[in-house]
Design a protein that fits this description.
Elements (H helix, E strand, L loop, with lengths): L7 H6 L20 H10 L2 H5 L2 H14 L5 E2 L6 H8 L1 E4 L3 E4 L6 H5 L6 H4 L1 H14 L5 E6 L1 H10 L7 H9 L1 H25 L3 E6 L7 H17 L4 E2 L2 E2 L2 E5 L6 H5 L5 E3 L6 H8 L4 E3 L11 H15 L5 E2 L12 H15 L2
Parallel strand pairs: 1-4, 4-5, 5-8, 8-9, 9-10, 10-11
Antiparallel strand pairs: 2-3, 6-7
């Protein structure tokens, strides 16, 4: 593997000194870029892009040609795991992901098998390898997965939901079935993330997108406990480097101390949390990632630069901050505003 020329991201995640604050963007590869939309129209649909390693590699590289980002991220989807388990993932324009065979009974859960990533998701691993080769050490490559709870919520509902009523009914009425599902997903995700690391991912992020809909007690029991198990079983050093783990629980500001004790190296924050307050609460235990509201990118260069400065000031001096949005970039964003954002982070943080 090539020598890593820009290791600013990994150093920040490990809380080592850096010359500036690194920056990457959740969903940087994809829907806000016209070149991505052109490629998607040629491919026909989203899953055709994900399942074609060469196209996935091309999409992962697109934002790096526009912006001076400090990381690339795998182009894929968190729902590839349930798809590999046989639920039939497809995407409906304007409605998002849906499953043809959502989970409805205990027998549905019992019939699920823990995946073998090398067999069931070989296209993702091939994409990781191609991306790592294409990067040639320019910046680190981030791999990712959803959390067990988040994947379970999609699998039970069959699609995204406002209140996840079916999933919460299982949680309170049939917790033993839900735990059975979560354990199968946990074992699958350990295999999947370790396979990504062995294929070339140098950082991994776990997206606990729906953890924030849980009560305090349920979050610990049905989400964080399984994330702890995943992190404890991940390859921590590969290719003679540490492999940092980032954990993102959307709306997880109430549980920063618990998240910091999960074994992760960094907590990714949404925009509802003060970086200054988060840093005070977690101390020197973990790095912090985030956390600009993606909606700021709809404004103008002056407002974007001002908000970048405010967030950098909120974190303060010292290592351990990775600049990012508080959630994924939205499709309506002008790439010129993204360029202003990235350059402002570099300029105001010391580059």
């Amino acid at each position: 593997m090539s020598e890593l020329k820009n290791d600013c991201l990994i150093k920040s995640l490990m809380k080592e000194p850096t010359t500036r604050t690194p920056v990457w963007i959740m969903r940087q590869a994809g829907r806000h870029l016209p070149e991505y939309r052109d490629l998607r129209s040629q491919a026909g649909d989203f899953m055709s892009l994900c399942q074609n390693p060469k196209l996935a590699c091309e999409i992962a590289m697109q934002p790096l040609r526009r912006y001076k980002l400090d990381a690339a991220i795998l182009f894929s989807d968190i729902l590839t795991i349930p798809d590999a388990m046989g639920l039939g993932l497809h995407f409906v324009e304007g409605e998002g992901p849906k499953f043809r065979k959502p989970l409805r009974t205990e027998r549905d859960v019992e019939s699920l098998s823990v995946i073998n990533s090398k067999v069931d998701l070989s296209y993702v691993l091939e994409a990781v390898s191609l991306m790592r080769k294409e990067l040639d050490g320019a910046v680190p490559l981030i791999g990712f997965s959803g959390s067990p709870w988040t994947l379970a919520a999609y699998m039970i509902e069959g699609h995204s939901s406002r209140d996840f009523s079916r999933t919460k009914t299982w949680l309170y009425k049939h917790p033993e079935i839900l735990h059975q599902l979560l354990q199968k997903l946990t074992l699958s995700l350990i295999d999947y993330l370790n396979a990504q690391i062995c294929s070339g991912a140098q950082v991994v992020q776990i997206f606990d997108t729906w953890g924030g809909i849980l009560s305090h007690e349920a979050y610990e029991k049905f989400s964080l406990a399984y994330i702890r198990e995943i992190i404890a079983n991940l390859i921590s050093r590969y290719d003679d480097r540490e492999v940092p783990v980032v954990l993102f629980t959307k709306s997880g500001g109430n549980w920063l101390e618990e998240i910091a004790s999960s074994g992760c190296n960094a907590i990714s924050l949404d925009w509802t949390v003060s970086l200054r307050e988060a840093r005070r609460r977690v101390g020197a235990n973990v790095a912090l990632q985030g956390n600009m509201d993606p909606a700021v990118l709809r404004s103008n260069p002056e407002s974007i630069e001002s908000e970048v400065q405010r967030i950098l000031d909120s974190y303060g001096s010292g290592s351990g901050h990775v600049f990012n949005l508080g959630h994924g970039i939205t499709p309506d964003i002008d790439p010129r505003n993204v360029e202003v954002f990235v350059e402002a982070v570099h300029r105001y943080s010391g580059a």
